[in-house]
């Protein structure tokens, strides 16, 4: 039965490509921690595998089309050709996950720093929600807080996962490593940052990474990333503006 065989083939390739994509993404996270040579080898292996899968898929689809044109009625041929095109697109998308890429970074510029700090000192707490960004399909934003302590103000930064259009197609809980940070306006190498691997977070934080239901999740990050005094002393404030970023790894 052509339909049954086509379905079996589709399910098999989906399972294999999805499983390999997850394994290689996990392996790439480990490699980027300090194994440059191994990372280059991994990239080469991935490139070879992608080429192999593409060629094999083309051969199987070509054989299937040959069978269709000789044994299947015209109406079924049209339907099967459409299904084949959709499946090939799906596999292409899965293979794209195998490509190691640089982390995705979203920048945020907080203006009116002097007034913001003043309000935090007066009220005891200020919170700023950043704009939503689509990063690897997830809808996220960077939250910034200023909280008055006994004699100073602490600046915090958090990632908040928002409800998004792609949520039903994404992996949950959220498992991508992310970094919250502050950029120096004149020296790009001078960064204040806080890196989080959701897998290593405690049970009390796992709710931050579940699929959001109707509203944004509680933010996860560092409430004491730095202080206004340190930022100003080290030259991080320029033109009354603070440059922050959110980075998510593949």
From TrEMBL:
It comes from the Eukaryota. InterPro entries: TRAF-like (IPR008974), TRAF1-6_MATH_dom (IPR049342). Residues 134-243 form the TRAF1-6 MATH domain. Keywords: Receptor. Pfam families: TRAF-mep_MATH. The keyword Plastid does not apply. This is Putative tnf receptor-associated factor. It comes from Ixodes ricinus.
